[in-house]
Write a structure and sequence with these properties.
There is one protein chain. The N and C termini lie far apart (39 Å). The radius of gyration is 16 Å and the shape is globular. Helices cover 23% and strands 31% of the residues. The strands form two sheets. Strands 5-1-2-3-4-10 form a six-stranded mixed β-sheet. A four-stranded mixed β-sheet has the order 8-7-6-9. It has two domains: 109 residues, no CATH class; 35 residues, no CATH class. The protein is of the alpha+beta class. Strand 1 and strand 2 form a beta hairpin.
Length: 150
């Protein structure tokens, strides 16, 4: 695999192992946005891909891009909506207290406030690939289930 630098605005192709690809966009570290598109075309135009809906914005280990596992194939400057810092939830493993986390801020929250948010966790590339395959296959994902509040 070719080593590559992680650069904000880069598009990455993610091989799903079945002849299809999913796609992400490098955001400010460690975030990557994932698009709701699965296709056999390993390199759609960045302009067409940028028009697709975003499924999730997740913290992802740098090795996904920098190792070449996810191939960089295009670049566009990030738009304001992609630069907005997402809100994540956290749950203390001992006290079970929940909180919201955004950027460097953290504040207490109810379970209801956390319900539809992503967990503050750094994802390994293989777990994101599993999640994408499950999403496009219409199946629940075991990694998402493990990070649930309940």
């Amino acid at each position: 695999m070719v080593r590559q630098k992680r650069r904000e605005g880069d598009f990455v192709a993610i091989d799903l192992g079945d002849g299809c690809h999913a796609f992400g966009r490098v955001l400010p570290e460690p975030l990557i946005a994932f698009y709701d598109l699965r296709t056999t075309d390993a390199q759609p135009t960045p302009e067409s891909l940028a028009q697709q809906p975003v499924l999730w914005r997740l913290w992802v280990a740098n090795k996904a891009v920098e190792s070449g596992r996810w191939r960089v194939f295009g670049h566009l400057p990030l738009t304001e909506n992609l630069l907005e810092e997402p809100v994540f939830f956290k749950k203390d493993p001992i006290t079970k207290a929940t909180s919201l986390y955004q950027g460097t801020r953290e504040w207490p929250a109810t379970l209801e406030e956390c319900e539809d948010l992503e967990c503050a966790a750094v994802w390994d590339p293989q777990h994101v690939e599993d999640r994408l395959r499950d999403h496009f296959g219409g199946r629940p994902n075991k990694w998402v289930q493990m990070l649930r509040l309940g």
